[in-house]
Design a protein that fits this description.
Layout lengths: L2 H14 L5 H9 L13 E2 L5 E7 L5 H4 L7 H12 L20 E7 L10 H16 L6 E5 L1 H11 L12 E3 L4 E5 L4 H5 L5 H17 L10
Parallel strand pairs: 2-3, 2-4, 4-6
Antiparallel strand pairs: 1-3, 5-6
This protein binds iron/sulfur cluster.
């Protein structure tokens, strides 16, 4: 393990001890079964990631159970299958922390690392937790693109990046920050996939576009919207 990996491990340990939001400290335990992680969930992926996939909040019976972002629920199944199809993941399943999943060139995390009731963090909780996004991004030196899953993740990322006025969310929307590209994507929730709002092809297209934007590494000179 090199110094870089040590830095990410140390950061993950600090995230896992966070108790900054009393309501969410209670929530992550209230929903937990005996074998649940029930602590904040750090990001997961490739330390040399160029693409970050950002969700809104830890799932109560997904990440909160298994201690790994996008693991053990249907949204995770959809996302990781797409990451596999587009060459970012070594397998199409994300079942539990010991399932052998590895990412190549990608990182995934939530803006809010604990599971909020009704999946709705308060603005204060969201803003408090964005400190960890700042630290993880700083620890990922090759990062170029953040794929924001859903409007609320997009808004969190835009506010985190200080974009004013906040640009409108759209599937395929692109906005530059000083150092990164934000790319909007419908959330891979069962509601969106079952209704056909988000198809596997649409998700694959966004991930391929993220790879392309990250490889280019140059800021766009205009806002795009698909
Ligand atoms: S939501 Fe984030 S800031 Fe709040 S307790 Fe959990 S890890 Fe800490």
């Amino acid at each position: 393990m090199n110094d870089h990996d040590h830095r990410l491990d140390a950061l993950a340990a600090r995230i896992g001890e966070c108790t900054a939001c009393p309501r969410l400290v209670a929530a992550r335990r209230d929903v937990a079964g005996e074998d649940y992680w029930a602590r904040p969930v750090p990001g997961f992926g490739d330390p040399r990631a160029r693409v970050h996939v950002l969700g809104l909040a830890t799932a109560p019976h997904g990440g909160n159970r298994y201690g790994r972002a996008f693991t053990g629920n249907r949204s995770a199944d959809t996302l990781v299958a797409a990451l596999h199809r587009t060459g970012f993941a070594n397998q199409a399943r994300s079942d539990h922390a010991g399932d052998g999943l590895r990412l190549a060139g990608a990182w995934m995390a939530s803006a809010v690392r604990c599971p909020p009731p009704q999946h709705r963090p308060t603005r204060a909780e969201r803003d408090t937790c964005l400190r960890w996004l700042t630290e993880e991004v700083a620890a990922l030196p090759d990062l170029r693109v953040i794929v924001c899953l859903g409007r609320t993740a997009w808004e969190a990322a835009c506010d985190w990046a200080g974009l004013r006025p906040r640009p409108a969310f759209g599937h395929g929307a692109v906005r530059e920050t000083k150092s990164l590209t934000l790319l909007g994507c419908y959330h891979p929730s069962p509601q969106n996939t079952q209704s056909g709002r988000l198809t596997p092809a649409m998700l694959d297209d966004v991930l391929r576009r993220a790879r392309h934007l990250a490889a280019r590494g140059l800021p766009l000179d205009h806002e795009e919207s698909a």
